[in-house]
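Hello, quick one for you while I still have it in my head. A protein chain has come my way and I'm curious about its shape. Can you walk me through what the tokens say about the fold? No rush at all, and the record is pasted right below.
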Amino acid sequence: DMIYSSAEPAGWVLLPNPNDKEKRYCAKKNLEIIDADWFDLMGIEAPVSTEEALEA
């Protein structure tokens, strides 16, 4: 377990729309859930398709 004896909170998890099972697991591991994804964090719009992502 890489977060054994860690600080409070043990870490953060980018998890958009977490379900109850994910919330329980993160609570058990003392991880703080950030209800967002990578695109929200970076402040950019998510690509609609693979082709659009490759063009960027």
Notes: The longest helix spans residues 20-28.
